[in-house]
Amino acid sequence: xxxxxxxxxxxxxxxxxxxxxxxxxxxxxxxxxxxxxxxxxxxxxxxxxxxxxxxxxxxxxxxxxxxxxxxxxxxxxxxxxxxxxxxxxxxxxxxxxxxxxxxxxxxxxxxxxxxxxxxxxxxxxxxxxxxxxxxxxxxxxxxxxxxxxxxxxxxxxxxxxxxxxxxxxxxxxxxxxxxxxxxxxxxxxxxxxxxxxxxxxxxxxxxxxxxxxxxxxxxxxxxxxxxxxxxxxxxxxxxxxxxxxxxxxxxxxxxxxxxxxxxxxxxxxxxxxxxxxxxxxxxxxxxxxxxxxxxxxxxxx
Amino acid sequence: xxxxxxxxxxxxxxxxxxxxxxxxxxxxxxxxxxxxxxxxxxxxxxxxxxxxxxxxxxxxxxxxxxxxxxxxxxxxxxxxxxxxxxxxxxxxxxxxxxxxxxxxxxxxxxxxxxxxxxxxxxxxxxxxxxxxxxxxxxxxxxxxxxxxxxxxxxxxxxxxxxxxxxxxxxxxxxxxxxxxxxxxxxxxxxxxxxxxxxxxxxxxxxxxxxxxxxxxxxxxxxxxxxxxxxxxxxxxxxxxxxxxxxxxxxxxxxxxxxxxxxxxxxxxxxxxxxxxxxxxxxxxxxxxxxxxxxxxxxxxxxxxxxxxxxxxxxxxxxxxxxxxxxxxxxxxxxxxxxxxxxxxxxxxxxxxxxxxxxxxxxxxxxxxx
Lengths: 301, 369
Hints:
The complex is a heterodimer of chains A (301) and B (369). By secondary structure, chain A is α/β, with parallel strands linked by helices. Chain A is built from 10 helices and 14 strands. In chain A, α8 crosses α10. Chain B has 13 helices and 2 strands. In chain B, strands 1-2 form a two-stranded antiparallel sheet.
């Protein structure tokens, strides 16, 4: 549904996005992670047809964005970071103004706007958008991103201004949209937020894609300098006997406990070897890298 | 560019303008002051009309010794609109600047521009729609001002002739052109600036530059580049009126002053030295005026005053455009008067067009991060 090929954007000689190759499948809820200034918003601006790439190309639903931005805008919804509205108009009037660009007639607009305002709990709010709190603006932003019932939804830091209740409702909404088969592209620097709603993630740093996949895959890929090494935690009742296996890289011993670094998951062979040695296994598990630590390490690079 | 999207933007902008407190207050002030000016203008017109009627009665009732064929001229109701011209150069300009200076910068500040651009609309449709909405709002203000003026004329039982009605419409069009010049400046500055505060400052700087500094600069340039002023010969025979100079000045306060003076030259028809001096003086004055006029073409204020004067007071306008010609015995027709100020009218079209083009180019290339 979303594809970028060597996508590049240079601002005043500074590369914001550097040869980005990214693929997001249809119906996927994709988390676009990265520290501030990594190039996430710039990528979204190119994907939504708001700026033109310096190099490469991006496609949404098979349409090349730079060649036909209007066709892309008709099938996408976009919630910008720190979304803004016309302060002299009510939320309903703002939505009505935007809805007119989709050729919706008055009845369609009214029905759609009523539904969306109820969805984001802004129905019955008569004050002007200029008097809205930041949270209310964010809710209205979600409504305006959904005004055309989009196939693809781009959300840039969607929970930035929401209170806990708003965050919960937002998560429910994303789940519901995913259930409807929509593709949701969530850009955020908050890992917990992405973890809560996204099935796949891409990690961007300094304009480059560092890793892509499920959170576990990305975390493992980035976990340690030895790349694919598997860390197996072993604890026995007795003192841990010597273990030999061609896939073992090294063993960190600590009494009857050890961390075995191996080239592959050798737990079956390890269990058999310990059994042969007469050791009683209390614990044996693959140690998953701490996702927060892994991402923080990338953020600090 | 699709017209429905363009009109969607324009409609919203127009609605924003005419419902904004800023627009309503300035327009209200302009209309009230114009109405007061119109009222005093109508009183002057009625006095002149009374005098004209008395002259007619005198000529019909008694033998007249004046020049053969001389007839008093009926005053034109367009003189009443001179007052409106004065207020338009100040409050009208302020109105135009006020609705334009934050048109784009405010959208950048509130980030509504980013939201708008995320929907299916091209950038050129947005900037053109904004310009169209502003033009429509100023047109609305102009129509309102003219409607009130016409209503006042009718209240005082003054019915314009067909030609006068056409002149009123042309006056409205010229005034709208003037307002658009300042609106275009404000829109451009709003597009160039990131903040509305800066946009306002830049707009005011340009406003004062083109309305006050430029005409002064034009006069100074005329003095510098027209060469040395010819010196009259030492010996002077009997005076003979031979030349007349007319000067006109429009200030930023909107007051328009004109003066006409006879250059009395003591010259003998047979004295070649004096004839030479007279020719040199004429050439010198025309050079100065040319430099001044060219410089003033960049000033919407000056162009407006010249063009509006051609409509409201064609006789003075004729004297302004050719100082060495004799005072016209009959008031020139509307077409003739407008023909004399075609460059000023063209400048009133070119000036806003250039600024609109600059705003367009800048908006199309604007970084919307």
